[in-house]
Amino acid sequence: MDLQLKGKRVVITGASMGIGLACATTFAQEGCSVVLAARNEARLKDAAASLSGTGAEVATFRGDLGLAEHRERLAAAFGEADILVNNAGAIPGGGLLDLDMGVWEQAWALKVMGYIHLSQLYLRGMKERGSGVIVNIIGSAGRSPRYDYVCGATGNAALMAFTGAVGGASPAWGVRMFAINPAMTRTDRSVTLSKARAQERYGDESRWPDMLANLPFGRLIEPDEIANAAAFLASPACGYVSGATLDVDGGGAFR
Fold first, then answer.
1. Is 205 in the same domain as 158?
2. Which among 31, 54, 210, 221 would be 20 to 30 A from 23, CA to CA?
3. Where is the signal peptide (predicted)?
C-alpha cells in the first residue's frame, strides 16, 4: 500500500533509539526526509548511519528538549515539517513518596512540556500552510494508571487530554493531531522500568523479567509495530483521524 508520504519532511524527537528510531526508519522507507532529534551525539550518528540504506535525506539535531531554548532551536533549524513525531521522554518509575518534586519537574519538562511546546512551535507553521500532522507517542499508563508509575501515568494522562483538545480544533486549520499509547515495548526503557518495579516488589532488580510475565500474545510489542501505526495514521490513508488516542496494548487494559 502506498501511504503517499514520499517527499514529506518528518521531525522525530527521541529518535536515536527505540520507538523513535523505528519511526525514523519507517518514514524513511516510505520516502520521507527525516530529522532525528536527541541528546546523545554518538547515538544520533549511529542512528543516521543506520538509515543510509533507505536512500532518504537524513539530518540530525543534538539538544536537550527538556529545555525551552533547545526546543526553539530545533523549530528554528527545521521548522518546515509536514509531520512532527513527539517521542522524547523517559519518566522514571516510583510511587508518590519515592520521587521528590525535582524528579517530577525534570521528567515533565522533557515529555509533558516538551510535547506541548514543540506542538505549539510547529502548529503555528502548519496552520499558516493549512496542512500538517502531529503524532504524540504517549504510553498506556495514561489510560491504566498505576501507583508505581504515578509520575509517568499522570503525565501521560495530561498529554492524552492535550491531544484531544488540540486535535479537536486543528482540523479547522487543515492540521491533524493524534496519539499512540504503546504498552510495554521491546526497548531499553522497558528494562529500566521493570528493574525499578522488581526492586520495589522483591527488593531485587535482577528479577525484572518476572515483571514481564503474562503479556498479551506472550511477548513485548516490537518498536516497528508502533512505527508502522504512526506512519499509517499520519498518512492520507487515515486523513480523518484527529484528536484520537490509539491504545496499542494487545487488549491488555481489558485483561
1. no
2. 210
3. none
